Amino acid sequence: MRKLKEDKKGILGLETVRVVIVTLLILAVITIASFLALTSLQTPIDTIDAQSATITNESGGFINITGYTLTDATKFGFKSPVITLVVNTTANDGTVVLSGNYTVDADGIVTNASVTNYASVNISYTYSFLGDASEQTTRITGNMTSGTTQFFANVPTYMILLGVIVLLLIIAIVLVVVGRFGESSTVRTGGSELTGGGTL
Question: How far is CA 87 from CA 27, 68, 81, 145, 172, in A?
Fold first, then answer.
C-alpha cells in the first residue's frame, strides 16, 4: 500500500508543481530585493554623479520657429540648460543676439522669441547632466523592471501548462489504478476462476 502511495505521488507530479511554485517565489523575492536595493541607491548615485558642462560657440545652430536642439541635449540626465551667448554668424559680423530673441526649454530646444530669424548662429551654454554610474544604474533598474513584468505576465500561461500536465498525470494514475483493480478482482484457483467474489 505504501508503494502505491509513493507511486501515486510521483505520477501526479505534485512534487514538480511544488518545486515550480517555490522557484517562482524565490525569483520574485530576489527580484524585489534587487529592485529595492537599486532604487534606494539611485538617488545617492544621482547626487554623487551629477556633473555640469560648459559649451562655447557650438556652431551649426539656428534660431527660428521650428527650433534647434542643442548638441549635448542627448546626454543622459541632461537638464537646466542656460544660454550664455548667441552670436549671429549669418553675415560673419559677430553680432550678439540678445536674449529676448530666443528661448530654450528643459529639453535643450532653442526657438525664436521674436519675428527675426537667424539662419546661422554660434551658441554658448551651460547645463547639468548625470554620469555613467547613474546611467548604468538607471538602465539596470529599467531592465529588471521590464524583464520582471514580462516574466510574471506569462505566469498564468505557466500555471495553465502545469494544470494541463497535472490533469494528464491524474488521468494516467486513474487508468493505472483501474487496470490494477481489474486484475485484482479476478482470482485464479487451480483450473477454476473466481470473479467478483463468486463461489466455486
Answer: 57, 14, 17, 45, 84
* 37 three-class SS: helix
Angle at which helices 155-184 and 14-49 pack, to 10 degrees? 170
32 residue type, one letter: I
CB of 188 closer than 8 Å to CB of 36: no
- In whole angstroms, what is the distance from residue 114 CA to residue 145 CA? 45
CA-to-CA distance for 90 and 121, rounded, in angstroms? Answer: 7
Query: Cα–Cα distance between 73 and 129 in angstroms, integer?
Result: 9
Q: For the whole model, what pTM was predicted?
A: 0.55
Q: What is the CA radius of gyration of the chain?
A: 37
Is-contact 46 136, C-beta < 8 A? no
- Summarised one tens digit per residue, pLDDT across range 26-70 is 887 887 787 777 777 777 777 777 899 999 999 999 999 999 999
Q: Across the chain, how many H-helices and E-strands are there? A: 4, 9
Residue that has been written with the C-alpha cell 530646444 in this structure: 109
- φ, ψ for residue 25 (rounded to 5)? -65, -40
**Whole-number average pLDDT of the chain:** 79
